[in-house]
């Protein structure tokens, strides 16, 4: 097996998809609460006209957390003509639904209402939007925010998701390129989870990694369509370090701040308010990652390459055993199809 | 184009040039090792230059017999052969430069021939055949086709053409070495030439020469040439001559053989008794008087002459190839491998030939209903005299036999069945079969064709070409393919009730030619590593049928480029 096969195995382990039990369980919870919230909104006179997943699950880049909760972001959308003037009203209604269901720690945060299923390690965020035509507005404000600190703020939740999913940027084989990009995002998230600790860990936002990777993505597929994730990740990380996201604020101590702007409305800095400590750590660890990736590219031995990757991503990255027989081994991974139609003839 | 302009220009370049005869004749005097020599050129009536201007060499024998110069009968001037002028592209818009170029080439050749005797001698031997042909008269004695081998040791038979035959080998004079008269390998040629039905002509002998005098300039010099040649025979040839000279006949045929760097030079003389009485071969100039000497052009039918002259490789004669699958690709492949010179081909295919493949197969209407393998084998033997073919109606599965596979230098699989090919590969791989195996197939809609060659023990195998790019695991469709898998690619013609993959004879020929090239490079020792090669065609037809093409199709730019087969993700090849 070559290194790509091991990357595929690693990806299979970390990827959290719809077929995973953990996700299915979380969705059951999410669907159940959503149904109750919808009923409550309907009773209040502002029925939900749309709901969709945001975040990692919306972008299909979710991974199994190393520790902590599995996150789901469920957007609820009401019609602008029926929406209350006070953006806190639907948030309070949501909170009351959650509290009625027994959530002791349900909370109204600035951008959303949150609920934790402690027993299942599931954390669900409910951002609430109103929609007028194509224009979305997010209900912003905490429970006791006054008029100055609450608003229906311009937003574009689907725009960001569409931007991430957009394949028109790829010249050809868009699906293959997008798949490689998504794998890279998952690798970066797992790297973050493995290499950082709180409080910095929670400040390296997934959406930041997602946007950086998309803007800096360098695909690597050979003529036959075989991906080379190592090479792609190496070039992408190199781009991330040199794309102007990191600004030096102290040359002597090499301290940096990080700024990554949302590519859609409201175009805000994703890392707004983060400290130079966060920026500096983020940059330094990315540089370290790049060095390891480049060192790995120089190696000829797959086992040694895997060992280096384990230092970046943790034990989920497989390291093959030493080969026992010099020849005659069959490929370990079989096709999952029973049969495939081909165009081969003679 | 003005003759004076040419003269003035050549004069300005330092040539000693004059023009006379109402501006028709250009004469150039030049020096050859201190001796004056002359070339002349006759300007054409029209101004148009379509080829290099021709110069004639006055007094062509002043420096002896020079190569590449053919004298006229009176030996007053000679034509100078400066090469194949048809392939030279001339600058007809600037005739002065063309004349200068041509004149320089003429002078250089004459100087070299006159001052480098070793080169001149070598060239005279090299151009012996066309010079000999100049003194032959095909109305007197037609072209002789002659085939022999070392085993014949000079013993040959000459037979006149088949009576009333007007074309083909039957209508030609034929001489065969004694060992070829019964050799099964030559059976097709003998049958084609109708050897048995031909009348024997006189007594024949082949003599191998150590030294070959230049061809006589005139036919009147032939007897002198003959006497000089037999006077210079080596000891072995002299003995052969003396033994043959004891035989009497009204007609004798002498075929002279001289091996050179570039092949065998062969010519013949027919001696016919003037008084119609039997006689022995003359051994001196006096004895020649009772014989009529006719020079004969000889076309060399030896395998070692015919194969390289027609592009085949003689060294492949002892190679043995198994071809499994005799469909559109397999039949063309058999032809291509045979014409490259492979000496032994076994063809396997269980099916009969049907009309469905008429326009994309080497077989024709007369073969409908017959076994494809047998018919293709027979066709090959009809076409190529030195090939041995065998055939059977078995399948690829039945070839999974380690001992049987050992006898072949190469096995080519052209059945277009990925399942059976993968299974065969599993057998070959798990039994460590050493015989190299080639798998070749084409894709429909003219998008392309592929061939892979697995050469144990070099890394790279069929599995490398079947790895799934998405999983790096075993796939069911080849990753070389240009049409994405799992699409409806077969079509049905109204009423025929059968589904088929549409492709043309051009596609199968292209695939076969490409695969044959790969096979021959391996058999010829040029290729040592497991390899793959593809050709890519247009996507128009596939696009019109709304078929999805693979990533490889869109990125592939290496048509006909032989690449390494090894895929670094292959478990079987990379530990």
Can you walk me through this structure?
In chain A, the strands form 2 sheets. In chain A, strands 1, 2, 3, 4, 5, 6, 7 and 8 form an 8-stranded mixed sheet that branches. Chain A has a two-stranded antiparallel sheet with strand order 9-10. Chain A has helices at residues 3-14, 21-44, 55-59, 88-100, 157-165, 174-195, 206-216, 229-241, 276-298, 302-313; strands at 48-54, 70-79, 107-108, 113-117, 122-126, 128-132, 135-140, 151-155, 246-250, 255-258, 344-345. In chain A, a hairpin with a 4-residue loop joins strand 3 (107-108) and strand 4. By secondary structure, chain A is α+β, with helices and mostly antiparallel strands. Residues 326-331 of chain A have low confidence and may be disordered. Chain B is of the alpha/beta class. Chain B has helices at 3-12, 95-115, 117-126, 128-135, 187-193, 222-231, 235-244, 303-309, 328-339, 372-383, 402-406, 418-430, 505-523, 540-544, 551-555, and strands spanning 16-20, 25-32, 35-42, 56-58, 69-71, 77-80, 144-147, 156-159, 173-177, 203-208, 251-260, 263-273, 291-296, 298-300, 320-324, 344-348, 388-392, 410-413, 437-443, 448-454, 491-492, 499-500, 531-536, 563-564. Chain B is globular and about 85 Å long. At the A-B interface, helix 1 and strand 11 of A face helix 9, helix 12, strand 19 and helix 15 of B. Strand 11 (344-345) of chain A pairs antiparallel with strand 19 (437-443) of chain B.
């Amino acid at each position: 097996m070559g290194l790509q096969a091991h990357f595929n195995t690693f990806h299979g382990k970390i990827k959290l998809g719809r077929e995973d039990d953990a996700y299915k369980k979380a969705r059951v919870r999410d669907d159940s609460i959503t149904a109750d919230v919808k009923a409550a909104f309907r009773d209040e006179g502002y029925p939900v006209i749309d709901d969709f997943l945001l975040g990692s699950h919306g972008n299909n880049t979710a991974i199994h957390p190393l520790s902590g909760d599995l996150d789901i972001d469920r957007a609820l959308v009401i019609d602008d003509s029926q929406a209350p003037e006070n953006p806190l009203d639907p948030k309070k209604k949501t909170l009351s639904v959650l509290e009625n269901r027994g959530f002791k720690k349900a909370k109204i945060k600035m951008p959303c209402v949150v609920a934790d299923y402690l027993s299942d390690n599931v954390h669900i965020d409910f951002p609430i939007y109103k929609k007028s035509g194509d224009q979305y507005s997010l209900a912003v404000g905490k429970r006791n925010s006054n008029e100055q600190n609450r608003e229906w703020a311009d937003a574009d939740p689907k725009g960001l998701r569409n931007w991430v999913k957009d394949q028109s940027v790829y010249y050809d084989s868009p699906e293959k390129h997008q798949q490689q990009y998504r794998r890279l995002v998952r690798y970066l998230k797992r790297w973050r989870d493995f290499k950082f600790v709180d409080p910095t860990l929670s400040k390296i936002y997934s959406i930041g990694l997602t946007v950086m990777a998309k803007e800096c993505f360098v695909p690597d597929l050979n003529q036959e369509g075989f991906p080379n994730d190592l090479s792609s990740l190496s070039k992408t990380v190199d781009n991330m370090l040199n794309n102007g996201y990191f600004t030096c604020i102290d040359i002597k101590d090499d301290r940096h701040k990080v700024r990554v702007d949302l590519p859609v409305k409201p175009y805000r800095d994703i890392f707004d308010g983060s400290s130079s400590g966060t920026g500096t750590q983020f940059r330094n660890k990315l540089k370290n990652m790049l060095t390891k990736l480049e060192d790995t590219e120089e190696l000829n031995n797959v086992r040694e390459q895997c060992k280096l990757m384990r230092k970046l991503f943790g034990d989920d990255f497989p390291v093959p055993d030493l080969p026992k027989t010099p020849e005659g081994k069959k490929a370990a991974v079989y096709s999952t199809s029973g049969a495939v139609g081909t165009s081969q003839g003679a | 184009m003005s003759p004076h302009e040419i003269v003035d220009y050549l004069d300005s370049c330092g040539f000693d040039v004059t023009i006379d005869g109402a501006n028709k004749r250009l004469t150039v005097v030049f020096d050859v090792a201190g001796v004056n020599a002359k070339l002349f050129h006759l300007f054409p009536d029209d101004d148009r230059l379509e080829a290099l201007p021709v110069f004639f060499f006055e007094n062509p024998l002043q420096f002896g017999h020079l190569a590449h110069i053919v004298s006229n009968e009176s030996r007053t001037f000679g034509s100078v052969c400066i090469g194949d002028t048809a392939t030279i592209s001339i600058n007809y818009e600037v005739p002065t430069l063309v004349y200068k170029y041509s004149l320089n080439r003429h002078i250089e050749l004459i100087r070299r021939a006159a001052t480098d005797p070793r080169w001149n001698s070598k060239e005279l031997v090299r151009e012996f055949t066309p010079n000999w042909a100049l003194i032959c008269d095909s109305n007197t004695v037609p072209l002789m086709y002659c085939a022999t081998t070392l085993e014949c040791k000079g013993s040959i038979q000459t037979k006149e053409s088949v009576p009333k035959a007007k074309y083909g080998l039957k209508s030609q004079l034929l001489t065969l070495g004694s060992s070829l008269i019964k050799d099964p390998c030559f059976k097709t040629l003998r049958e084609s030439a109708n050897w048995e039905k031909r009348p024997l002509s006189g007594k024949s002998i082949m003599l191998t020469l150590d030294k070959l005098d230049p061809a006589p300039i005139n036919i009147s010099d032939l007897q002198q040439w003959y006497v000089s040649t037999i006077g210079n025979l080596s000891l072995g040839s002299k003995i052969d001559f003396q033994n043959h000279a004891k035989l009497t006949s009204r007609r004798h045929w002498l075929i002279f053989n001289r091996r050179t760097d570039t092949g065998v030079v062969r010519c013949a003389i027919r001696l016919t008794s003037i008084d119609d009485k039997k006689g022995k071969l003359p051994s001196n100039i006096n004895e020649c008087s009772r014989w009529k000497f006719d020079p004969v052009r000889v076309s060399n039918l030896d395998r070692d002459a015919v194969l390289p002259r027609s592009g085949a490789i003689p060294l492949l004669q002892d190679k043995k190839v198994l071809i499994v699958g005799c469909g559109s690709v397999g039949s063309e492949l058999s032809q291509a491998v045979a014409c490259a010179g492979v000496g032994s081909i076994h063809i396997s295919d269980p099916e009969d030939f049907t009309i469905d493949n008429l326009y994309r197969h080497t077989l024709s209407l007369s073969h409908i209903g017959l076994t494809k393998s047998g018919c293709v084998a027979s066709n090959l033997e009809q076409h190529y005299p030195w090939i041995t073919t065998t055939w059977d109606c078995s399948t690829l599965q039945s070839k999974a036999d380690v001992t049987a596979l050992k006898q072949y230098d190469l096995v080519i699989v052209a059945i277009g069945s990925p399942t059976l090919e993968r299974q065969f590969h599993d057998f070959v791989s798990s039994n460590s079969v050493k015989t190299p195996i080639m798998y070749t197939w084409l894709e429909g809609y003219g998008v392309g064709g592929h061939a892979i060659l697995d050469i144990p023990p070099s890394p790279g195998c069929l599995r490398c070409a079947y790895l799934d790019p998405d999983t790096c695991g075993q796939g069911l469709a080849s990753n070389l393919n240009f049409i994405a898998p799992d699409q409806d690619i077969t079509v049905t013609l109204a009423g025929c009730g059968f589904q088929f993959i549409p492709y043309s004879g051009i596609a199968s020929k292209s695939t076969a030619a490409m695969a044959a090239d790969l096979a021959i490079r391996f058999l010829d020792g040029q290729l040592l590593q497991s390899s793959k090669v593809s050709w890519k065609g247009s996507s128009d037809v596939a696009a019109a049928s709304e078929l999805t093409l693979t990533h490889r199709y869109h990125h592939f730019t290496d048509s006909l480029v032989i690449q390494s087969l090894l895929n670094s993700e292959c478990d079987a090849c990379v530990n």
